[in-house]
Write a structure and sequence with these properties.
7-stranded mixed sheet, Metallo-beta-lactamase, Chain A
Length: 210
C-alpha cells in the first residue's frame, strides 16, 4: 500500500462523513455535505440524525447505489437498502465488507444493545475501518486494517486520548480523526490525537471537502 496514493483517495466530508474515491466510490455517514459526488455504496453507522441523514443520502444516491444500514436507520432511507448487523460479512459491488459493533462503555448515548455499526471494508487492496460513534471497545483489538477513521471529540464518543489508545490497539498504517467541527469537538481534538501518536502511528488530519 502506497500511503500517498491512499490518502489522495480519502475525502473528509465533515463530522463522521468519509468518501473513498476508489474503483468503487464508498461514502460513510454523509451529513450536511456540500460535495455531491455520486456513490456506489453508502454505509450508515446508526440512526442519529448526524449520521443517518436521508436528505444527504439522496444527494449522492444513484439508481444502482447500495445502502447498508442497521434496521432502525433503514426505515428512513429509500432505494436499495440492505439491513445489516454486527457480525455480518458480505460482498457489494466487489467490495468486501465486514460489519462490526460500535458502542459506549462509560456513557449511554450509544448503548451496545442498540446494535449500532462500524465497518471494515476492503477496496482496491486497502482495508479501511470506520469506527462509527464508539468508545474504545475490546473488538478493536481484533482488527487488521490499513486505515482507521476514529472519533476524537469526546462527549458522545472517545476523547482524543482514548482514541489514541484505540489506535495503538488497532495499529493501522494511517489513523484519521473524525467526529469534530460540527456537533461537538474542534480541530484541537484532532491535533491532540495526532500529538498523542507522534512517532508511533501516522495521523492524517484532513481538510473538510467543500
Amino acid at each position: 500500500m502506497r500511503l500517498e496514493e491512499t490518502i489522495k483517495k480519502i475525502h473528509w466530508l465533515g463530522h463522521d462523513g468519509i468518501r473513498i474515491d476508489g474503483s468503487t466510490v464508498v461514502t460513510i455517514d454523509p451529513f450536511r455535505i456540500s460535495s455531491l459526488k455520486p456513490s456506489d455504496i453508502i454505509l450508515i453507522s446508526h440512526e442519529h440524525f448526524d449520521h443517518n441523514s436521508p436528505e444527504d443520502v439522496e444527494k449522492i444516491r444513484k439508481s444502482d447505489t447500495v445502502i447498508l444500514a442497521d434496521a432502525t436507520s433503514a426505515k428512513k432511507l429509500q432505494g436499495e437498502v440492505r439491513v445489516v448487523a454486527p457480525g455480518d460479512k458480505l460482498s457489494v459491488k466487489g467490495v468486501e465488507i465486514e460489519v462490526g459493533p460500535a458502542y459506549n462503555t462509560n456513557k449511554d448515548f450509544h448503548p451496545r444493545a442498540a446494535g449500532m455499526l462500524s465497518f471494515v471494508f476492503k477496496l482496491d487492496g486497502v482495508r479501511y475501518y470506520h469506527a462509527g460513534d464508539t468508545d474504545f471497545i475490546p473488538e478493536m483489538k481484533q482488527l487488521d486494517v490499513d486505515v482507521a477513521f476514529l472519533p476524537v471529540s469526546g462527549t458522545y464518543v472517545m476523547t482524543a486520548e482514548e482514541a489514541a489508545q484505540a489506535a495503538r490497539a488497532i495499529n493501522p498504517k494511517i489513523a484519521v480523526p473524525m467526529h469534530y467541527g460540527e456537533i461537538v469537538g474542534s480541530e484541537s481534538d484532532a491535533k491532540r490525537f495526532q500529538k498523542e501518536l507522534e512517532g508511533q502511528i501516522e495521523v492524517v488530519i484532513l481538510s473538510k471537502e467543500v
